[in-house]
Design brief:
This protein is of the alpha+beta class. It has 7 helices and 7 strands. A 7-stranded mixed sheet has the order 1-2-3-4-5-7-6, with helices on both faces.
């Protein structure tokens, strides 16, 4: 496997991967995304737009793309420093508010989104690296590719000086939780929304600067 860091000089333009990866990133954003945007069709369209915007949490230009021996993408990971997360989420929320505009019940929708987000996703420490999305080609799941992609990211972020890695995962995704635990992540908290049928686990990997390479 080969890993492309799309932010590096000489890397392919992220637009080359956008259409292929959009549905994967959409799936990795659920179940929260379809609830957040109201339905699956709207979620897919908006996620595609946000993947092109540098200020978005979903911006593909900061992605790590895993390539197979045929030079085809098989996985993608989106992440950023904890210091960047709040700003990215604020710009995404502003874009979301612009999408719904002054529609009837818009204020109620905004209040629900804000409440659910605060309930489900604890703040990320500024000095941690945050894994926002991990997506694998649906036809190649179950082969340990996600684990390889996360391990590559941990090794990379260790070299860059990060000591902690954070992520959030749907509480009903038992396979993913076990995979993260096998890499050393621990569940910090498990949160259930009072207004949406959603439950997420916050997971943390500490001391990666001391881990074996």
């Amino acid at each position: 496997m080969r890993f492309l860091h799309l932010w590096e000089d000489g890397a392919p333009n992220s637009s080359e991967f956008a259409e292929r990866l959009r549905s994967w990133i959409h799936d990795a954003s659920n179940p929260f995304a379809d609830w957040y945007f109201g339905d699956r069709e709207a979620a897919g369209e908006i996620i595609g737009e946000w993947m092109e915007r540098p200020s978005s949490e979903l911006y593909l230009g900061r992605a790590i793309v895993m390539m197979d021996d045929q030079e085809e993408p098989v996985g993608v990971l989106l992440g950023m420093s904890g210091a960047e997360v709040a700003a990215c989420r604020m710009t995404d929320f502003t874009a979301f508010c612009e999408e719904i505009g002054s529609e009837t019940e818009a204020d109620e929708v905004v209040d629900q989104v804000v409440t659910a987000s605060r309930e489900l996703f604890p703040p990320i420490e500024e000095d941690a690296f945050y894994i926002s999305r991990i997506a694998i080609d649906p036809e190649k799941r179950g082969r340990g590719l996600g684990r390889q992609l996360v391990q590559h990211t941990i090794d990379l972020k260790r070299r860059q000086g990060f000591e902690r890695v954070r992520l959030d995962v749907s509480a009903d995704n038992a396979d993913a939780i076990r995979a993260y635990e096998s890499l050393g992540f621990k569940v910090m908290s498990q949160s259930q929304s009072t207004i949406a049928p959603l439950e997420y686990c916050a997971m943390l990997l500490e001391g990666i600067d001391r881990a074996d390479t």
